[in-house]
Amino acid sequence: MAEEKLYVSYNTVHKLIKKLAQQIKDSGFDPDVIVAIGSGGFIPARIIKTFINRPIYAVGISYYGIDHKHREHPTKIQWIDEVQVQLKGKKVLLIDEVDDTRATLAYCVGELLSYNPEEIAVLVLHNKLKQKDVEFPPEIKRYYPALEIEDMWIKYPWDADDIDEQERLEKEMFDRMSKEGRKLFV
């Protein structure tokens, strides 16, 4: 059997983010700023800005070198040093598309904690239910995954060559799973 993939459309991303925005409001967390981890967190961060109108700062974290080889740990590619003073004492909403190994998210949290924010909350579209390489520090008390899923490859719309095919594949995936009586989301 071929490796199962989760196909996600822009429409689905928008609906998941809207749901998360409401969860954040209901939880009482009111962020001062949004920090988007690039490149996967850029589009979800921009969508959430529609519902939680806060400034967005972008950071680039890479787990791969120019040669596309996996590194031992994430490294900063682009950072927000010029605004570190603006993060002190602030509530930060950190956004990425997926929590897979958690290495990138935890690395970014560690860097942001050095700026002494009041609080950091983490938001992801998908949390893969598997052993993480690293845990969040105890300062992270709020974690917002839109969906918890099996450990599978996720095909996001921003990686699609053909957006119509992406939407078709998402629909076929849900139709197939429905006929099989399977639930994708835990």
Radius of gyration: 17 Å
Low-confidence segments, given as residue ranges, are none
Beta-strand residue percentage? 25-35%
How does the major sheet shape up? 6 strands, mixed
Strand order of the largest sheet: 4-3-2-5-6-7
Mean pLDDT: 89
Secondary-structure-based class equals alpha/beta
What is the overall silhouette? globular
List the total number of helices: 5
Percent helix among the residues? 25-40%
Q: Span between N and C termini?
A: 21 Å
Provide the succession of SSEs.
Answer: EHEHEEHEHEEEH
Q: Got a strand count?
A: 8
List the helices and strands and how they pair.
Elements: E1 5-7, H1 10-27, E2 33-38, H2 42-51, E3 56-64, E4 70-78, H3 84-87, E5 91-99, H4 103-113, E6 119-128, E7 142-149, E8 153-155, H5 163-179
Parallel strand pairs: 1-8, 2-3, 2-5, 5-6, 6-7
Antiparallel strand pairs: 3-4
Helix pairs in contact: 1-2
